[in-house]
Amino acid sequence: MPQKKIALIFLLLNSIFINFAFSQKISEVDKIVAKYPKSFDSTEKLADKIEKDFDSDYDRARAIYSWIAFNIRYDYNAYLNPPRVQGFNYSSEAEKQRKIKQLNDNLIQKAFKSKKAVCEGFTALYQHLAELVNLKCEIIRGDSKTNLRDIGRKATSSNHAWNVVLIDKKWRLVDVTWGQGYYDISKGRMVNDFNPVYFDTNPEYFFAKHYPDSGTFLGDRISKSDFLDGPLIYNKTIENDYKIKTPNLGIIEAKNGDKITVEIKNVSKSSQVFYLNRKNQPVKVLNPKEKRGSLEFQILIDKNIGDYITIFIDTESIVSFKIV
């Protein structure tokens, strides 16, 4: 099939499936919260509403996630032009803690009332609301992996924040900042796109995209090299449990004529699987084989392969590798 025709089909499929996909990811809790007012007089009144409508800790934690994701937008301008760090003087530890609390309260109220925040505001508001409904919640700071250039980075940096919330004696991972939407490079703006995959995320997927500053998570050591050198995965990978079995590294050393074997869990031959070449043209994989609940196929390394390979399943990006 000609490349132009494949590209046209790709765009048509993308527009057809977008509404269907949205309807599939809304839970009953989300449907109730979607009918809430966009504004409340106070965080306490919002918390009271959530406590009255939901009985379980899990549903209350999800309701907080949903309301914030539905109503608070990522402030990309503030991200590009961060305000100056606000310092203060203190004469005692008690005064220091009081002033820190005041700064945090100001951050929470600013996010709640302006409906805009960066990750610090999202996480502070989530923690505040969680504590108002008697949930133990903490803020974790660390690195994030979001674009192709992050594959094979040499060092981590503290550029993001997320939450952990204790539900039924188990700590759950929450990143409501990523749940509310994403930045569309082609449009040059934030896109509102509620996504629940970052509520109670499977740690295996979560830590492929997050690395805490301490390098640990609740006592479990997390490998920095696994994070830095791992492939870049996407939201649909998490949503559909598309585990990348091979290659297990994000950096692939190959020469012209080599074939890379890729194996992805929970994909069948009926799925449309392709990758993009150097010209961003879709190339359908040839002769895929079903193998132990996975799909296995090969990609030929030639002059048409660029510096990165991104694999798509049914119009959705799933995983990217860096080719060296």
What does this protein look like?
This is Transglutaminase-like domain-containing protein. Residues 111-178 form the Transglutaminase-like domain. The chain starts with a helix and ends with a strand. It has helices spanning 3-24, 28-33, 43-53, 57-71, 76-80, 93-114, 119-132, 176-179, 203-209, 224-229, 235-239, and strands at residues 73-74, 116-117, 137-144, 160-167, 170-174, 181-184, 189-192, 210-212, 216-217, 220-221, 232-233, 244-246, 251-252, 259-265, 273-276, 282-284, 289-291, 294-300, 308-313, 316-323. It contains eleven helices and 20 strands. It folds into two domains: 25-83 and 95-230, C8orf32 fold (Roll); 244-323, Immunoglobulin-like (Sandwich). Strands 11, 13, 15, 16, 19 and 20 form a six-stranded mixed beta sheet that branches. The chain has a four-stranded antiparallel beta sheet with strand order 5-4-3-8. With 324 residues, it is α+β, with helices and mostly antiparallel strands.
In short:
With 324 residues, the chain is of the alpha+beta class. The chain contains 11 helices and 20 strands. It folds into 2 domains: 25-83 and 95-230, C8orf32 fold (Roll); 244-323, Immunoglobulin-like.
What structural class results from the helix and strand content?
Answer: alpha+beta
Annotated CATH architecture of the largest domain:
Roll
| Low-confidence residue ranges | 1-24
CATH top level of the largest domain is Alpha Beta
* Total DSSP helices: 11
Distance between the termini: 30 Å
Number of strands: 20
Q: Characterize the main sheet.
A: 6 strands, mixed
Radius of gyration: 22 Å
Count of domains: 2
